[in-house]
Amino acid sequence: MKASKTRKATSWSDVKARLTHFDHDGLVGLLHDLYAASKDNQVFLHARFELNEDVLEPYKTTINCWLWPDMLRNQNASVAEAKKSIANYKRAIGRPEGLAELMVFYCERASGFSVEVGLQDESFFSALVRMFEQALQAIARLPNAQRPLFMERLRAVCNISQNIGYGVEDAMRDLLVEYGPYD
């Protein structure tokens, strides 16, 4: 008979315990190595420390890449990758107005791409409607003065979505009524 060994999964608490042994230079070195390891880490740290004039730019670039791919180069759209960009921003800095901006931008790009290429993908459209609702929820958390411009942009998304079909425009109009005018 073999004795079964159960191994505890490594977790953040294990990493955190090891960090107590680092001095300042060791922590800076670790952060440097993480920074050098991936572009995502660089974007995260730039956002966290607000090192770029436009913190949202790299996140918008990623959303645009995944929601408006170059079809002539056989690039594919990816809802998951576009949403991941928003989640990454939320972890890095997560300011309410930045989240609202990225969510509205997602809706603009997804609906624009759908109309331009005549996309026929029900799961893509379902994700668009879900993000539309999440954008409305994010806008509701903003101060009153910030809401009208975002709402104007979402109404424009709803208007161009009449060319998509699949009940997308109807679902968006229902959500606009449910969440109120905000203007």
Model description:
The protein is mostly helical. The protein is built from 9 helices and no strands. The protein has helices spanning 12-19, 24-37, 39-48, 57-67, 79-92, 96-117, 122-140, 147-160, 168-179. It is elongated and about 60 Å long. The model has no long low-confidence stretch (mean pLDDT 89).
Uncertain regions spanning at least 5 consecutive residues: none
Helix/strand order, N-terminal first = HHHHHHHHH
Structural class: mainly alpha
Distance between the termini: 72 Å
Main sheet attributes: strand count, strand direction, barrel closure? none
Give the overall pLDDT as a whole number: 89
Oligomeric organization of the protein chains: single chain
Total strands: the figure is: 0
Write down the Rg: 21 Å
- Categorize the overall geometry: elongated
Instruction: Assign a percent range to the helix content.
Output: 55-70%
How many individual helices? 9
Strand content: under 5%
What tags apply to this protein structure?
single chain; 183 residues; mainly alpha; 68% helix; elongated
Topology:
Layout: H1 12-19, H2 24-37, H3 39-48, H4 57-67, H5 79-92, H6 96-117, H7 122-140, H8 147-160, H9 168-179
Helix pairs in contact: 2-3, 3-5, 4-5, 4-6, 5-6, 6-7, 6-8, 7-8, 7-9, 8-9
Compact summary:
The chain has 183 residues and is mostly helical.
